[in-house]
């Protein structure tokens, strides 16, 4: 059965900043915080660590960083979707700027994920691309301006609001994450108050001096923002 995600959620992307035991250490810290603060945490881990992370955590939703579209059989070095499921992945990232896909391939990837009950987490750059991807009905869209990734500069609030509204105008059931160079718990807190249903961090956590501690503080910020909104009787302004 496909995982159900409760907003607001948090996402950690490892990329290749960490590997081996360091990935598992961060996963366990994030898992502890996810349970303590009752926050759904997506954990995008390298292929080599999917099974280990899945087997050693309780609350993390493990995502693969990519998959190919082939079926079981031939395909040396391709990433088989069925193998990701067998390893413990609950979802897959499609169209990240470091592994871009055509719109046709994105559509096929979403359908392939749907067949295997994997969450489809699709990245998009411009507002026009966000709208095009929303038409394909993935589970999550991550609007992320490519030129800002890893620079330390975050998306302007104009882009944040326009990208969220663009998705909700097409399909209100799609969850919308915000990311791009987020590095502090306060940024996460403010984004969720603005209406983001999820916030994602990669280098901001993985290159920190104490990534485990920072991850836990960021997950706490998600809970704090949600509690603030509830105490004020507010709903996330961008929800359909």
Give a summary of the structure in a few sentences:
The protein is α/β, with parallel strands linked by helices and 240 residues long.
Tell me what the structure shows.
This protein has 240 residues and is α/β, with parallel strands linked by helices. The protein contains 9 helices and 8 strands. The protein has helices at 21-37, 50-56, 81-87, 103-115, 127-134, 157-170, 185-194, 203-206, 211-231; strands at residues 9-13, 41-44, 60-64, 91-94, 119-124, 140-143, 175-178, 198-201. The protein has an 8-stranded parallel barrel, surrounded by 7 helices. Helix 5 packs parallel to helix 6 (157-170). The protein is globular and about 55 Å long. 46% of the residues are buried. The mean pLDDT is 93.
Report, as a whole number of angstroms, the end-to-end distance. Answer: 25 Å
Instruction: Report the portion of residues in β strands.
Output: 15-25%
Radius of gyration: 17 Å
Q: In terms of structural class, how would the helical and strand content be classed? A: alpha/beta
What coarse outline follows from CA principal-axis ratios?
A: globular
Largest sheet: 8 strands, parallel, barrel
- The portion of residues assigned to helices is 40-55%
Total helical segments: 9
The ordered H/E elements are EHEHEHEHEHEHEHEHH
How many strand elements? Answer: 8
Mean pLDDT: 93
For the biggest β-sheet, the strand order reads: 1-2-3-4-5-6-7-8
Low-pLDDT stretches: none
Subunit arrangement of the protein? single chain
Features:
eight-stranded parallel beta barrel; 8 strands; alpha/beta; 240 residues
